[in-house]
């Protein structure tokens, strides 16, 4: 059964208002990740999520898809999402009140008292009855907070079936970036094309500062990358400095020859664009290193 269209719209805007870029430049993807996870669990029939049971899953999502941080706090979204009106903690009165009411309760209490969280009853019912609504809210959260190259991975990790996520790409941006880098991956030089039209295969215009973080559609926020290197940039495995040096994260591992091939690029200059005005802008580069790159950079031989 489908929720009525006005009900659907109201719900969607409720989740839309969860614009969690309120802290300026910093990514705050914790709440969207919790909701995506809860949608996945709901699809499997779970009404309530007990904190101690989901803590590890949630932490893993934050580690993998959240910004690189020294410590991750799955208890924050679990507690603070209530203020957005899309989450309830029915047994919150069993918790000792923290001194400052805006602080979450002690994590040991959440664990030991088997505190549960979940969608409020009306939202839960609408979502349970309508898989299409679940998908559209999941897509909304993904497209508001993450670049499209990661949607599939996040959906899989959250246990969601998305079908194909809709994406928006600015065609001019793509064209200008590919042209600036002469239609080849700025890292590996990949430039295969197909057919008489010579359409590039798997060559993409990557945003250094994500569109979701208001990264501009300027060439100085772009890099022409093959699909693999684009993915690695968005995953924080790679970083490109303002003067075009490539850094590989120490966190990348795997087997040779793939690993050594990647590390061969470390500390080297990538292909330069046709004009110096196309070089990556300092501000977007700083954003990427602070919000995405999983440093430190490895200390490989250069
Ligand atoms: Zn490449």
Write a brief structural summary.
41% of the residues lie in helices and 8% in strands.
Keyword list:
8 strands, 12 helices, mainly alpha, 302 residues, two-stranded antiparallel ribbon, globular, binds zinc ion, 2 domains
Describe this structure in words.
- By secondary structure, the protein is mainly α.
- The strands form 4 sheets. It has a two-stranded antiparallel ribbon. A two-stranded antiparallel ribbon has the order 3-4.
- Helix 1 runs parallel beside helix 7.
- The longest helix has 15 residues.
- It starts with a helix and ends in an 11-residue tail after the last helix.
- The relative contact order is 0.12.
- The site of zinc ion (ZN) has 8 residues, from strand 6 and helix 10.
- Zinc ion (ZN) binds next to strand 6 and helix 10.
Shape: globular
Strand content: 5-15%
Taking pLDDT < 50 over at least 5 consecutive residues as the criterion, the unreliable ranges are: 164-168
Name the helix and strand elements from N-terminus to C-terminus, one letter apiece.
HHEHHHEHHHHEEEEHEEHH
User: What is the count of DSSP helices, taking H or I runs of 4+ residues?
Assistant: 12
Largest sheet at a glance? 2 strands, antiparallel
- Tell me the structural class: mainly alpha
Radius of gyration over C-alpha positions, nearest whole angstrom: 21 Å
